[in-house]
Amino acid sequence: MNILFITADQWRGECLSILGHPHAETPNLDALARDGLLFAQQFAQATPCAPSRSSMHTGLYLQNHRCVVNGAPLDSRFTNWALEVGKAGYAPSLFGYTDSAIDPRGLDSGDPRLRHYSEPLPGIETYTPMVDEVSAEWVEYLRDKGYPLPDRPWSLYAQTVPGTDWADGGDAVLPLAIAAEDHETHYMVDRCIDWIGARQGSWITHLSLLRPHPPFAAPEPYNRLYDPRQMTAPKRREAAVDEARQHPLLDYYINHSRYRAPDNTRQTQQDMANYFGLMREVDDNLGRLFEAIKARGEWDSTLIVFTSDHGEQLGDHWLMSKLGYFDESYHVPLIIRDPRPAADASRGQQIDAFTESVDLMPTLLDWLGLEIPSQCDGFSLKPALETGQLPAGWRDSVFWEYDFRNVRDDAIERHLGITLHQCNLSVLRDRRYKYVHFGALPPLFFDLERDPGEFDNQADNPDYRARVLEYAQKMLSLKMNHAERGLTETMLGEGGAVTRRAPLRKLAS
């Protein structure tokens, strides 16, 4: 049996055409969902990439793995899905990146691995090397094809053909200067197809695609698939100054940082058109990958997981990128196609219960029949794959965290009047309410039934006082129940070491 674990970067959860999105077109992912199971309420545990992926790969909440920002090391004492499948004899590969920063303890100060966070996840056997957050082999491929290379490889994602772009008053959105067949998305899928084609026996690979992550520039023809004039307006107050009044952190991001959405309406329209174009490019290339697996006769022996590390604000609440506490940055897609006949009962169904990125590692291991480490905060989705329903006692809310510290720059601390270790927030969200607790700033409370757009903070409304207290207590209980376990589920004594993982639900009294 094989596993194909796919992540796209910065893909909002509603952006699948099977969910009725007005712009996104994803025929290959739609087909995967019709042949698998779609989890419509999947949420990431953190932003940006490294903290979120650390949760995805370890099954741990941010409060436990403590990779709080891009570049923060992941403590080597934690295991991950790659290390665990390696113990079972698999040799997992990686095409793309995991945004992993190596644990620096014990390393020489001159070790080059201390100068980036592009190491592969520990346990990965073969991988595509990254330099300056870009695939080194892809850059060499472009060099061999005769493309002029910029001093900073990251600029390859942004350089368009000469001309006047739509945002600047042009007639159309300019394409990326790199052809679609040479773009990194196509290149990585080609590499993955070649690797699978050379396998003999079972295999596991992680395909980690950058797009639709910014810069928002799509190659021909994906730059012109969507008319920028037809893009849906962002969900936000009419004036940015009014939006910023909601909270001091939101005020900082809107008025004092690079995360503010552009005032130029045409720029926002262009970014949206390119965003959906990049999604369609990913979908087309995944279609090529799926066909290659079918041609090898391995479609019915391969578990396929598609998800994303986090979402994108895309102008909503006057923000761009992934940050803060709004749903747009944390709601992500999840499709799992289980090839076993045991999963036939769930094919084409949709799960609307809350699931989280910490559930992915337990699911992969459980599907292989491997033990789930006691460190994991998440639970396996395998029961849902077999029945179309999550087991009794499943969570009725989701939890995520965001750390906005910057070790190299204390500007946000000085602006907000807080310390480095107070630059954090936690979110508890269920169907009706959403509570946001800050380390040292005022809380937020939203009534999602009356205010699905999250515009009106009810934290200081006397009518919601009891409810705010209730959710603060719920969050405290959740954080206590998910405190880093270490060896707390292991006991030594007569007969040796015994480990017992806490169950999903409470034991009957």
Kindly describe this structure:
The protein is an alpha/beta fold and 509 residues long. The protein has a single domain, classed as Alkaline Phosphatase, subunit A (3-Layer(aba) Sandwich). The protein has 13 helices and 17 strands. Helix 6 (184-197) packs parallel to helix 9 (265-295). It is globular and about 75 Å long. 47% of the residues are buried. The model has no long low-confidence stretch (mean pLDDT 96).
What's a quick, concise take on this entry?
The protein is α/β, with parallel strands linked by helices. The protein has helices at 27-34, 49-58, 62-65, 81-87, 136-144, 184-197, 240-244, 248-255, 265-295, 360-367, 382-387, 411-416, 465-481, and strands at residues 2-8, 37-43, 93-95, 126-127, 130-131, 134-135, 204-208, 302-308, 331-332, 334-337, 349-356, 398-403, 424-429, 433-438, 444-447, 490-491, 498-499. The protein has a single domain (2-395), classed as Alkaline Phosphatase, subunit A, CATH 3.40.720.
Tally of distinct domains:
1
Largest sheet, strands/sense/barrel: 9 strands, mixed
Low-confidence stretches: none
Number of helices: 13
Mean pLDDT figure: 96
Q: What CATH architecture would you give?
A: 3-Layer(aba) Sandwich
The H-and-E topology, N to C, reads as EHEHHHEEEEHHEHHHEEEEHHEHEEEHEE
CATH superfamily: Alkaline Phosphatase, subunit A
CATH class: Alpha Beta
Tell me the helix content: 25-40%
Number of strands: 17
CATH topology: Alkaline Phosphatase, subunit A
Q: Which radius of gyration do the C-alpha atoms yield? A: 23 Å
Instruction: Give the N-to-C terminal Cα separation.
Output: 40 Å
The class by helix and strand makeup works out as alpha/beta
Oligomeric state as shown: single chain
Report strand %: 5-15%
- Shape category: globular
